[in-house]
Amino acid sequence: MSQPQPRDIVVLVPGRLHGHAVTRLGDGFRLVRIDRADPALIDAEVAASVRAVASMTAIDARFIDALPNLEIIANFGVGYDAVDASHAAIRKVMVTNTPDVLTDEVADTAVGLLINTVRELPKAEAWLRAGRWVSDGAYPLSRATLRGRSVGIFGMGRIGLAIARRLAAFGLPISYHNRSKAESVGYTYHDTLVGLAQAVDTLISVAPGSAATDKAVNAEVLAALGTSGVFVNIGRGSTVDQTALAAALKDGTILAAGLDVFDDEPRVPDTLLSLGNACLLPHVGSASVHTRQAMADLVVDNLIGWFDQGRALTPVNETLSVGPRQG
Fold first, then answer.
1. Catalytic residue among 51, 87, 177, 236
2. 290 labelled catalytic
3. Is 45 noted as a catalytic residue in this protein?
4. Is the pTM of this model over 0.90?
5. Maximum CA pair distance of the chain?
């Protein structure tokens, strides 16, 4: 059987992209790659030919404006705060992300990170591997437990709901804070983040990065969480005041924190690295072979849906009204 011919459509990939997505794009489109999303790296002829961008990097207004015939930006990841989706909407450029296919993986990671944080499992394993079980005896009893805890979720979207269902199965009461109450959600709603923190002793942030959520988890919220409080962030590093968090962990304002995301990745400040009551992961929430391949497939399937059927599979809110160009 002969190999199908790629579409005569140029897809630009700035910087790194999952290898499975690159392979499928190369098979189905005319693929152009550049080192980073910098208009200076594209000559006028190539820029005019680009109709799609597939990316897992920042795509700003300047880069969008440098591509006069751009129709769609397929973002790798459910979070798309690195893409100027509002400007894309003004330019009538569709933006897509990769929700749903990573929901369960990230929720699993959040629960695992919470358990690691309260029961100190990574530290207990390090104790064993260092021979201290033999030399010093049993690992010290963990100060914290999930038993008797109450959980607040900041950002009750798809992933927040998946985390809530898992933790409800552990027998833990669930509350949440969003910009507004979700009528279909049966958990207890708090109309402020401080109010949520006051009502619980375990706060999990799944909030997206945006101007509205920038440093939302601040010193006031952490103080409200209290001295037995545990904070977990599986959403975006920008939603947390890292300086305030490090201080709260150091002085005992809260008990512990589990973090998978940071404000300036991959750089993690020494003020967090030095703390024994911080469980730190290198942004691995969705990082399994299975889930990342599913995300890569959705990036490509969005482009195929757009160019073959005139519709994107997972458009972001800002570009819901954007349709394919005629002619």
1. 236
2. no
3. no
4. yes
5. 76
